[in-house]
Amino acid sequence: MTEKFTLKEDAQGNKNPILPEGVKNYLIDIDGTIGEDIPNEEPERMATAEVFPDALAQVNKWYDEGHVIYFFTSRTEAHRKVTEQWLKKHGFKYHGIIFGKPRGGNYHWIDNHIVKATRYKGKFTDFVLKEETVEVFND
Prior knowledge:
The protein has 139 residues and is of the alpha/beta class. The protein has a single domain, classed as 3-Layer(aba) Sandwich (Rossmann fold), CATH 3.40.50.1000. The chain is 17% helix and 14% strand. It has helices at residues 53-64, 80-90, and strands spanning 6-9, 15-18, 25-28, 68-72, 96-98. The protein has a three-stranded parallel sheet with strand order 3-4-5, covered by helices on one side. Strands 1-2 form a two-stranded antiparallel sheet. 14% of the residues are buried.
């Protein structure tokens, strides 16, 4: 993938990658989010997992709009081939896959960059603005 970001230098001379205005980095789970929820203990089911059509359409729309699409999955490197074949078979457009996401849920991401989290509840749509209560560090 040709990187979409530019390097911006801060006051200390450190270079930081910055995406163009309006371009988002999407990190999207696979199992239970874009297709049937298959545990790592049942890899024989991965090749035939049901795809969620609304997820396919929305992910490809974001890709076509110029956003960066990465799948971030608890599947392991041992599942790479079957995962890539499944994504290709269903026509997902993406830039890469990150394997080995910790299992068990209850994620809390801490980063020095802006992070927006969206919990998948069974349907992919365009995003809407909504106010919610979130946990943050005490300033």
